[in-house]
């Protein structure tokens, strides 16, 4: 530190051309000292900015080494070449030292950057949140698979239907008492939102143009002027089934429905048929399945009967067969229609229909991965 002062004095004196002369011993000490300090400081510089400070301190316009070089001029003439060479080689040594250190710091910074930014490919990725299938969709897909397995196809009919298809062709003529039971959402005097999937029987048969066998299900939304409560909704879903061929009997209906019920609700599921009435089937039946909660032993859900009502069914009425373009003298058939929402509720123990329509994630996420 003290030498610094000496150097500037020497320099100031050097300004007065030849008058002041610094002893060569002092000069030698200054060079040695500077060399020691600068190499230590280069070593200690931890960043490129710190290293630059070292460069300015020694090699800058007013830097210590620059001053030392100027001070050479104040030496006795015969000593100048020796010291001039010394200072210059020190300058080169400092420059080399700075260059090497800055290369090292550059590499170090890059290494750190690489380490910081390196991607751990084993970490789980940032997956966008994806939804899951709605229980109704899940239930329908399972049902479709089961019926595919029995050689059925899927016929998607229409939701806006004519009065003719929804009622008349299904043997529910105008004024027929059964029409009162269906509180209908009319679009015009003659068109309406279908009250059941049964008109799909007629449309599906007509598309088959008399070919056999007719074997399809019609899943879809249906509409009724109903309240929205735990067991009713103005919009719900049904799955209709129709088979028309030669020699189709009531036994085929029973076997087919049992196969479906076991596939959907579990292999130990039982079914029972009770006599009923529908205008488009004769004879008609209600199909019950053994209670999915108590497995038939009797519980609250099945009102201690062990049975749950699921589907309407029956042998297709000859008039309906004819309306579909087939000859009831030649072929027979069976049909069934059940509520998809109800089937899903029974399968998963859902006790309020409304949760299927409210899109509450707390409910829907329970079906993820199911
Ligand atoms: N369409 C009837 C309803 O909505 C259900 C039904 C009963 C469909 C008997 C059928 C059947 O195919 O044979 O209540």
Describe the protein.
With 370 residues, the chain is of the alpha+beta class. It folds into two domains: 12-116; 135-367, BirA Bifunctional Protein, domain 2, CATH 3.30.930.10. It has twelve helices and nine strands. It has helices spanning 2-15, 24-44, 48-59, 64-72, 80-117, 135-148, 163-166, 199-208, 250-265, 318-323, 340-348, 361-364; strands spanning 153-154, 160-162, 191-193, 214-223, 235-245, 271-278, 281-290, 307-316, 332-339. The strands form two sheets. It has a seven-stranded mixed β-sheet. Strands 2-3 form a two-stranded antiparallel ribbon. A hairpin with a 2-residue loop joins β6 and β7 (281-290). α6 (135-148) packs across α9. It is rod-shaped. Residues 196, 198, 240, 278, 281, 312-314, 335-337 line the site of 3,4-dihydroxyphenylalanine. Residues 196, 198, 240, 278, 281, 312-314, 335-337 line the site of 3,4-dihydroxyphenylalanine (DAH).
Strand order of the largest sheet: 1-4-5-9-8-7-6
Termini separation (Å)? 79 Å
Q: Mind telling me the CATH class of the largest domain?
A: Alpha Beta
Topology as a string of helices (H) and strands (E)? HHHHHHEEHEHEEHEEEHEHH
Beta fraction of the residues? 15-25%
Biggest sheet statistics: 7 strands, mixed
Which structural class do the helices and strands define?
alpha+beta
Q: How many helices in DSSP terms? A: 12
Ligand names: 3,4-dihydroxyphenylalanine
Q: Count the E strands.
A: 9
The pLDDT mean sits at 90
Low-confidence spans: 1-19
Gyration radius, to the nearest Å? 47 Å
The rough form would be described as rod-shaped
């Amino acid at each position: 530190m003290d030498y610094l002062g000496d150097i500037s004095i020497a320099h100031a004196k050097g300004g007065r051309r030849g008058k002041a002369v610094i002893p060569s011993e002092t000069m030698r000490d200054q060079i040695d000292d500077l060399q020691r300090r600068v190499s230590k400081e280069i070593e200690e510089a931890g960043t490129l900015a710190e290293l630059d400070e070292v460069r300015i301190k020694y090699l800058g316009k007013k830097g210590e080494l620059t001053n030392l070089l100027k001070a050479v001029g104040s030496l006795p003439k015969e000593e100048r070449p020796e010291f001039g060479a010394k200072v210059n080689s020190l300058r080169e040594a400092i420059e080399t030292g700075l260059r090497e250190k800055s290369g090292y710091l550059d590499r170090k910074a890059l290494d750190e950057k690489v380490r910081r930014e390196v991607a751990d490919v084993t970490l789980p990725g940032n997956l966008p949140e994806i939804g899951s299938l709605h229980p109704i969709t899940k239930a329908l897909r399972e049902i479709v698979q089961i019926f595919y397995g029995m050689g059925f196809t899927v016929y998607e009919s229409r939701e806006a239907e004519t009065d003719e298809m929804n009622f008349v062709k299904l043997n529910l003529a105008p004024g027929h008492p059964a029409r009162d039971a269906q509180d209908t959402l009319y679009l015009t005097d003659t068109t309406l939102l279908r009250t059941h999937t049964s008109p799909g029987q007629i449309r599906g048969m007509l598309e088959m143009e008399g070919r056999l066998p007719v074997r399809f299900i019609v899943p879809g939304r249906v509409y009724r002027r109903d309240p929205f409560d735990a067991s009713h909704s103005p919009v719900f879903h049904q799955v209709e089934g129709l088979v028309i061929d030669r020699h189709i009997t009531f036994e085929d209906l029973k076997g087919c429905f049992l196969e479906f019920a076991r596939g959907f609700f579990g292999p130990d599921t039982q079914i029972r048929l009770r006599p009923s009435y529908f205008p488009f089937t004769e004879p008609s039946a209600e199909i019950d399945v053994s209670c999915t909660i108590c497995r038939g032993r009797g519980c609250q859900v099945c009102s201690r009967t062990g049975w749950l009502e699921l589907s309407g069914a029956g042998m297709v009425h000859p008039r309906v067969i004819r309306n579909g373009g087939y000859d009831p003298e030649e072929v027979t058939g069976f049909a069934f229609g059940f509520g998809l929402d109800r089937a899903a509720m029974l399968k998963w123990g859902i006790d309020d229909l409304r949760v299927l329509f409210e899109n509450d994630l707390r409910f829907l996420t329970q079906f993820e991965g199911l």
